[in-house]
Specification:
Length: 339
């Protein structure tokens, strides 16, 4: 069994002296959105809608600068309308004519690997989108269209299937069917791509034969479980034991790689409202400690809107996002020196 580091109050000094000794993993990538839901993205949606192609490209380079190796696009569409020029439906109006092309081109230039989403071609109810035949038809049409328009990009590393599944404590059958159907279609279009999902409610996770068999049946390369701290599904003190359970299950199944989707935010009003940046030293570094021993990579939700490099014209988010960037970049620069 892997050991995990004990809890301690982190300060800039303790980070420098001791946090690297427990082999913390840095944030290797992030989810990425052109627009978030209006109820939660009020601090950045309007700014992102005005980004030019050059600004989108520089945002990708900004992420690369602090060690991001992967970007996971949350959605190529929202409520059935695409963010890119499409024959399937009318495009969501934005200042940039083709933001998807802009960010993929930037990723090509700076060497980031991209997981491209294949949704949201319906409303945001995950279960409905998993079983609705018309949405499935549009989803596969979009995957064909995206492959034709953007499949030449060197950064096109894989697909992300974004209809979130929760552990109840197991995956529902419809989720397994949805994942495998998406994976089969993706492999026909892009044989060398890998795929990714990000389930939630890890506090229900169980290490037993039934869950292991489910993992064995899913044609998925990477599962990045949401740590649930930002949405208050998981307490900061307990997340390590849930990842340990998942680690044991994945080790026995010998199937999908185990990554993490670490939440950088908290809600403005308890369990709802705009998303705000958490404090790195008070919370996020403890999340990293809990997760690091059990996963291959830590991705985060999310850089866009929650972290911003100060002194640029591409700031989109609450002022505290600049503080979080500075806190994390200070830690990351120390990590690079010690590594």
């Amino acid at each position: 069994m892997l050991a995990f580091p004990g809890s301690m109050q982190a300060t800039p000094d303790t980070v420098a002296r001791s946090d690297f000794s427990v082999k913390l993993k840095p944030i290797s990538g992030s989810w990425f959105e052109f627009q978030h839901s209006a109820s939660e993205g009020g601090n950045w949606n309007s700014a992102l809608a005005q980004f030019t192609a050059d600004q989108w490209k520089r945002k990708v380079f900004e992420m690369k600068e602090i060690g991001m190796e992967y970007i996971v696009l949350m959605g190529v569409a929202l409520d059935g309308k695409p963010f890119y020029p499409s024959k399937i439906a009318s495009q969501i109006p934005m200042a940039c004519e083709d933001p998807l092309e802009a960010i993929l081109s930037a990723a090509d230039e700076c060497g980031i690997k991209f997981f491209v989403s294949n949704d949201f071609w319906g409303n945001l109810d995950a279960y409905t989108m998993m079983i609705d035949k018309e949405i499935r038809k549009r989803r596969f049409q979009s995957m064909e269209e995206i492959t034709e328009k953007y499949g030449h990009h060197e950064c096109f590393y894989g697909w992300y299937f974004p209809n979130e599944a929760q552990l109840q404590p197991y995956f529902i059958d419809e989720c397994i069917e949805y994942v495998n159907a998406c994976a089969d279609f993706a492999q026909r279009l892009t044989p060398n791509c890998v795929n990714l999902i990000a389930p939630y409610f890890i506090k229900e996770a169980r290490f037993d034969d039934r869950f292991v068999r489910q993992l064995e049946k899913m044609n998925i390369d990477i599962i990045a479980y949401q740590d649930g701290v930002g949405v208050n599904h998981t307490s900061l003190d307990n997340s390590a034991k849930y990842y340990e359970i998942l680690y044991k299950a994945h080790e026995k199944a010998s199937r999908a790689r185990l990554w993490a989707d670490m939440e950088l935010f908290y809600f403005e009003n308890g369990n709802e409202g705009n998303l705000l940046p958490a404090d790195f030293n008070k919370r996020i570094i403890h999340q990293m400690k809990n997760i690091s021993p059990f996963v291959d990579k830590i991705l985060c939700y999310q850089y866009i809107g929650i972290m911003n490099k100060p002194g640029t014209d591409i700031i989109a988010g609450h002022p505290d996002s600049l503080r979080l960037y500075e806190q994390y970049s200070k830690w990351y620069n120390q990590y690079k020196k010690i590594k």
